[in-house]
Design brief:
6-stranded mixed beta sheet; Putative ABC transporter ATP-binding protein; 515 residues; ABC_transporter-like_ATP-bd; alpha/beta; 2 domains
């Protein structure tokens, strides 16, 4: 057996009374891809940050290639050959890709021409081509994630930690990233990949470790494990108790078991007619888009990122006003309405990028839950925090948010729990008529995905219209009544999600190969 690239013994970490990690043992061999699995809040990101020097463990020891390893900072970890791609982006939006990369420790020693040469080499080796002159703020979320990965690879690390890197990538980009991980491992380096998608684990992992409640709950070599065993270790219950789409493994090629056909005959709640919009660079984002969503109906929009889905959600939320066309909610024309007015009329929106658009990390969970509704908790001109926290506790329990309490800062929660808070806020919108959910399960573990899908189904069953924008085709097939495909600014379809050929038809529309 070769010396482990990374070996952890008895790692523990607590934050006050909250125990994030307890007695974690882990060995990662060079030349392998080691996946770390677990529900949101299981301690995966905390473990990665301990290894990367962002956090110091309370107990335990670490070795790197056989020598003692105790980085006091991320800079020290980088100097030792450890790189990390964080779940949350660290790019500066007002700068170009090249300028961001030149800010890295390695970048400061590179000239621009040398940087471009290095980027071309990485693109050839790892299939991650990026535009160094692109302004980060104008890039779609998937492209920004690729820049983060390239930034880590620029340092030529011997160990690379990837914390949920595929959560914002489209299927082709995920395929490319898996090839990247395999190529890095083939070069003798070690890759630690944190992911919730069991289909990815089956494709790329040499070994896996499951965390539950901050402790190791299972794992080993993938040749000796099955996906159902990993799922059971993650959620603490037999896989057979999960819904068909999740039992098959979200992100796999399973059709997922479509829901019973519910052909909505209710009134039109959300309507778009001939909506057109352009991007900041003048390119066409939406070209004559029109569709309807009826009460009790779930409509899905699929598509490879960059085909107009983000701009469509921006138009629906009120963040962008279309150049032409109309948007209606019930009997109201909301084409030019403000986001606040749309909320008042009963529109809930879950944005695709929760950190930039759906939450304020520095505020408490309670404050985030009632953003825009703080006036309900005013008393004699002051905010009645006790009453607001009491209302927050009810939603915390209803949506199974794992948190010490409503006063906890939103930024300290795991990604899945942050998403549950956003979903709780939007689903509790007064007079809710329609919910627009963009990438609602992005970055969530299998248990949280199941919870979110059930909440969306329940929302529709209550008579609301639901529009789901997602790159997860198995989820859309299991959830929706009809599916449109966003392709080059137009909406193609719809496809009947209950049809036996639905997956093939959606795939053809996404790639522009449909007859």
């Amino acid at each position: 057996m070769s010396t482990p690239a990374l070996h952890l013994t008895g790692i523990g970490k607590s934050f006050g009374d909250v125990r994030a990690l307890h007695g974690v043992d882990l060995s990662v061999l060079p030349g392998t891809v080691h996946c770390i699995l677990g529900e949101n809040g299981a301690g995966k990101s905390t473990l990665c940050n301990v290894v990367y020097g962002g956090l110091r463990p309370d107990t335990g020891t670490m070795t790197l290639s056989g020598r003692r390893y105790a980085p006091g900072s991320p800079a020290a970890a980088m100097a030792d050959g450890v790189a990390m791609v964080h779940q949350h982006f660290s790019l500066i939006g007002t700068m170009t890709v090249a300028e961001n990369l030149l800010l890295t420790g390695l970048g400061l020693r590179l000239r621009r021409a040398e940087l471009r040469t290095r980027l071309d080499r990485l693109a050839d080796d790892y299939h991650l081509r990026i535009d160094p002159d692109a302004l980060v703020s104008a890039m779609p979320i998937g492209a920004r994630q690729k820049v983060e990965i390239v930034k880590a690879l620029l340092t030529d690390p011997s160990l690379i930690l990837l914390d949920e890197p595929t959560g914002v990538l489209d299927p082709d980009e995920i395929d490319a990233l898996i090839e990247t991980c395999q190529a890095v491992a083939a070069a003798g380096k070690a890759v630690v990949l944190v992911t919730h998608k069991l289909g990815e684990v089956a494709r790329v992992a040499d070994a896996a470790t499951v965390l539950r409640g901050g402790e190791v709950a299972g794992g080993g070599r993938m040749s000796e494990l099955t996906i159902p065993q990993l799922t059971t270790a993650m959620v603490g219950r037999p896989v057979s108790e999960l819904s068909p789409v999740l039992a098959a493994g979200v992100g796999t090629e399973s059709d997922g078991g479509a829901m019973p056909d519910r052909r909505a005959t209710g009134r039109v709640v959300l309507g778009l007619r001939d909506v057109r919009a352009t991007r900041a660079d003048g390119s066409v984002a939406l070209s004559g888009v029109g569709f309807e969503v009826r009460a009790g109906e779930i409509v899905g929009i699929a598509g490879v990122e960059g085909n107009g889905q983000s701009e469509l959600v921006a138009v629906l939320s009120g963040a962008t006003t279309p150049e032409s066309g109309t948007v209606t909610l019930g009997d109201a024309d909301i084409t030019s309405a403000s986001p606040a007015e749309r909320t008042r009329l009963g529109l809930g929106v879950v944005p695709e990028d929760r950190h930039r658009e759906a939450m304020v990390a520095e505020l408490s969970l309670s404050e985030n839950l009632f953003l825009g509704r703080l006036h309900h908790f005013r008393r004699m001109g002051l905010l009645d925090r006790r009453r607001m926290d009491a209302a927050a506790r009810d939603l915390i329990e209803q949506f199974s948010v794992r948190t010490p309490g409503p006063g906890t800062s939103m930024g300290s929660l795991s990604g899945g729990n942050q998403q549950k808070v956003v979903l709780a806020r939007e689903l509790s919108t007064e007079n809710l008529q329609c919910l627009v959910a963009a990438q609602p399960t992005r970055g969530l573990d299998i248990g949280a995905v199941e919870f979110v899908l059930n909440q969306l189904r329940s929302c529709a069953s209550s008579g609301n219209a639901v529009l789901v924008v997602s790159s997860e085709i198995p989820e859309l097939l299991a959830l929706c009544d009809r599916i449109f495909v966003s392709y080059r600014g137009a909406l193609l379809g719809p496809v009947d999600a209950s049809a036996g050929t639905a997956r093939q038809h959606v795939g053809e529309l996404m790639t522009g190969t449909a007859a």
